[in-house]
Each structure stands twice: as structure tokens, then as C-alpha cells.
Design goal:
about 325 residues, 6-stranded parallel beta sheet, alpha/beta, 16 strands
Length: about 325
């Protein structure tokens, strides 16, 4: 082959062909692993999915053994992600107990700040008829994973036996149409994401495309589609940048000397309350965002941009 497109984490990039392009979702922290710089410099181009990933990749400086600075010299381009837009298809048996529910769509793990997402919600709405729906899993859609997920969720909720608010688990594979129905369900009022960082944030993007109000931090990959012309189209949760926890260190990917975002507890609780009390205002904002996303992130436009990033022929090449 004349060209390779390698879709993986950058420490797996290899020089396979005359032209090699690496494609990665990027990073959730404020710097990349030194091996990413080394492997990235073996590529002819690197494609990432957000400005956060691009600036982090380009801005990371590592020191060699003789204290020389080492950084990325390869061209980096942003090619945004998307998912297919299907007709909504109802989820059989899905009927939340409460009329007002927040939705979380992410993995149940430390990178997503999942325990605090649940715990702080319950503390905020302990005596209110409000729900939190968790579309989640730990590793997949198996029965064993369901058991492990239920066990971990029960351990978080054990401290709140008399709560009026509900926390519901939605586990297993859903089709694209079912996911759209989830975002557009009349009892699902907002998407919540206080993860420590996102390379892009596809559930956030899908929610924005469906005009679902969003509660998240103003940092990392999601800012590419949630903020336009110096205006934020979401309910912002304050955060601090601080070192990643030891349980999240992933050698060669998430390094122990890197930082990511920690949502502030009081700001999170206050923002949830504001969205609950003034939902109509946030829904209007979400509808505005939907129109912007439909224009700037059309699938055809993203597809064309991606293809041009792989190969954009000159007039001479076109004959």
C-alpha cells in the first residue's frame, strides 16, 4: 500500500508505508505521554478529533535523558467526529418513574468521575421527585458486566436508603435509533457529564444534536461543539485542573504527571438545581445549539473534511 491510516492510540503508531497517517481521539488531560511524541514523529500527519487534542499534542514538551527538549514536529489536523443520525426507535419497557430526569451516558469508571456524578446528585435531590438515568457499563454489555455494574452502583447508593430521588440503570446495547429516542424522551430533560476530560465527547455531541440541554464543565474536547462565537450553549460547572489520581494512571496514555479537570461539588449541585428550576431557558438554549451543530457539523461536511485531510489532490494531480 502507498498509504496507511492507523486508527489507534498513538503509542501504537508504526511506519508501515511510504505515507503514514495516525488518527486518534486524543487525550483527556493537559499533556500527552512522551512516547506519543516519539511515535507521532514517525507519522507524516496526525488527525485528531478536537482542538483540545491538537493543542495538547502540540504543546507537550518532554525532556530527554540529557535534558534536551523533545516535542512533536508532525503536522496535526482536526477532523471532528460524528455518529449516524437514525430515526428514533422506542426502547421497550422504558418509562422512567419521575417526570424530570437527568441522563448520564458514559462508562462507569474513574475517568468519567462517575461516583461523584451519582453521589452529588442524590445529595442535591435527596428529598425531591427527580431521577438520574445511567446509560452505562463497566466494560461491555454482558450479563457478568451487568452484575458488576449493579454491585458497584449499589455500593454508591447504600448511604442513601431513604432518598426520594431515583437512580436508574440502563444497561446493554442500544441501536442508534434507540439512543436518539433516549435523548428525545419527554421525561429526559438534560444530559450530565462531569468527566475529568473528553477527547471529543460523542454522547455530548449526540445530545446537542437532539436539542437536549447539557450540564458539563467548560474544558476539553466538547468545547468544539458546545461553544460558538464566544458563547457557551450549556450549563457550565466550575472546575479545577489538578493531577490525575493514581487509579487513573495508564502508562503510555495517561501519565501520572498530567492534570485533568475536577468538577467543583457545590457548582455541580447548584447547576443541577438551576437546570431543574429554569429548564425552559436551558431548553431554548439547547434548540439554538442544535441549529448551530446541524450547520457546522453536518455529516457530509465532516466526511468531506476527513477525506481532504487524507488526500487533497492538487490541480496538476487532477489533470
Amino acid at each position: 500500500p502507498d498509504i496507511s491510516l492507523q486508527i489507534t492510540i498513538p503509542n501504537e503508531f508504526q511506519k508501515l508505508c511510504p505515507i503514514n497517517i495516525g488518527f486518534t481521539a486524543g487525550i483527556e488531560t493537559d499533556r500527552v505521554s512522551p512516547v506519543w511524541l516519539q511515535k507521532g514523529n514517525e507519522m507524516d500527519k496526525i488527525l485528531v478529533v478536537s482542538e483540545h487534542s491538537k493543542s495538547t499534542y502540540e504543546g507537550t514538551i518532554a525532556l530527554t535523558k540529557d535534558n534536551q527538549q523533545y516535542r512533536l514536529n508532525t503536522l496535526v489536523e482536526v477532523v471532528h467526529e460524528s455518529t449516524p443520525m437514525s430515526e428514533a426507535k422506542a426502547i421497550a419497557g422504558f418509562n422512567p418513574r419521575h417526570d424530570f430526569n437527568f441522563l448520564v451516558v458514559s462508562q462507569f469508571g474513574p475517568r468519567k468521575n462517575f461516583n461523584n456524578t451519582i453521589k452529588w446528585f442524590v445529595e442535591k435531590f435527596h428529598d425531591k421527585e427527580v431521577g438520574l438515568i445511567l446509560k452505562t457499563s463497566m466494560k461491555g454489555a454482558s450479563r457478568i458486566d451487568l452484575q458488576h455494574t449493579e454491585k458497584r452502583l449499589s455500593s454508591v447508593l447504600a448511604a442513601f436508603p431513604d432518598r426520594k430521588c431515583s437512580v436508574s440503570l440502563l444497561h446493554g446495547d442500544l441501536s442508534e435509533g434507540q439512543m436518539r429516542a433516549l435523548y428525545e424522551h419527554d421525561k429526559v430533560k438534560a444530559l450530565v457529564n462531569i468527566a475529568h476530560g473528553e477527547g471529543f465527547g460523542l454522547p455530548l455531541f449526540e445530545a446537542a444534536r437532539c436539542a437536549l440541554p447539557i450540564v458539563t464543565i467548560p474544558w476539553s474536547g466538547q468545547m468544539d461543539f458546545l461553544s460558538h462565537d464566544d458563547k457557551n450553549y450549556f450549563a457550565a460547572v466550575d472546575h479545577d485542573l489538578a493531577p490525575v489520581g493514581p487509579d487513573a494512571v495508564w502508562k503510555g496514555v495517561i501519565e501520572e504527571n498530567s492534570n485533568w479537570a475536577f468538577a467543583k461539588e457545590n457548582s455541580y449541585k447548584m447547576t443541577l438545581g438551576l437546570v431543574h428550576e429554569r429548564w425552559d431557558e436551558y431548553k431554548t438554549q439547547a434548540v439554538e445549539l442544535q441549529g448551530i451543530v446541524d450547520t457546522r457539523f453536518r455529516a457530509e461536511k465532516l466526511y468531506e473534511g476527513f477525506c481532504n485531510s487524507i488526500w487533497s489532490p492538487t490541480k496538476e494531480e487532477l489533470g
